[in-house]
Amino acid sequence: MRGVVIGAHLERDDLEAPAFAIPIGDLFLSAFPIAPDQPLGDRDLLIRVAAVRAQLLDRATFIAIRYGFAVTSPEEAHAKVASQIERWKRLLEEHRGRVEMTLKVPASLPSAHPNRADFSTGASYLKALHTAVRAAGADPEFRLLVEKELIPLAHQHRWIPRDEKSLELALLIDRRNVAGMLAAGEKLRGSGAAFLLSGPWPLEVFADDHE
């Protein structure tokens, strides 16, 4: 059966229909069944997979798999993720009962997007683009308020520049703290700053090897 993979799970009981389980060593992948000729970019499919993803997160913490990973057999699935199984198992055991939330904010001093025509090589352009993205920062006063209200509720946090005009704070929290995190987000509204607090989400930022 062909399926688009949704996530990596610690226990078989963490899954339920319409997702089906693909054993990979000591773990399980969840997958949504699709026809052999089903285009992965179909909008209705994207919506259905997103709904199943949320349904699975209601049951238990899992590691999100980037959308577009489709397999036709357990052997194919295992071959594609074999190098990650041990690390995923460690993370799922360590973060059992935890989820991610994200706070997206505009940069207080957006950096100018570099002009490709100003660079002689693609490598130099990409370096300048990376520098511009890294230079984006949140308003210092708002950042202090965020770190006072949100970060004490989190086990881990990570500020991530997303582009030269915005950045994101990823937070790893216990499920029982989701309501508290949302309440803390309401306090931030009094600052007048623009932001978007969303979640809970499965493990993604904190399942990544790269800081």
Q: What does the model show?
A:
The structure is a single chain. The protein is of the alpha+beta class and 211 residues long. The protein has 6 helices and 9 strands; from the N terminus they run E-E-E-H-E-E-H-H-E-H-H-E-E-H-E. The chain has helices at residues 43-59, 74-81, 85-94, 122-135, 140-149, 178-188, and strands at residues 3-9, 20-24, 27-33, 63-64, 70-71, 98-106, 156-163, 166-174, 196-201. A hairpin with a 2-residue loop joins strand 2 and strand 3. Helix 5 (140-149) packs antiparallel against helix 6 (178-188). The two termini are 36 Å apart. Mean pLDDT is 85; it is low at 124-136.
Q: Please compute the radius of gyration using only Cα atoms.
A: 20 Å
Q: What class, by secondary structure content?
A: alpha+beta
User: What's the overall average pLDDT, rounded?
Assistant: 85
How many separate helices? 6
Following the backbone from N to C, one meets helices and strands in this order, namely EEEHEEHHEHHEEHE
End-to-end separation: 36 Å
Overall, the morphology is: globular
> Which range best describes the helical content: under 10%, 10-25%, 25-40%, 40-55%, 55-70% or over 70%?
25-40%
The low-confidence runs, each spanning 5 or more residues with pLDDT under 50, are 124-136
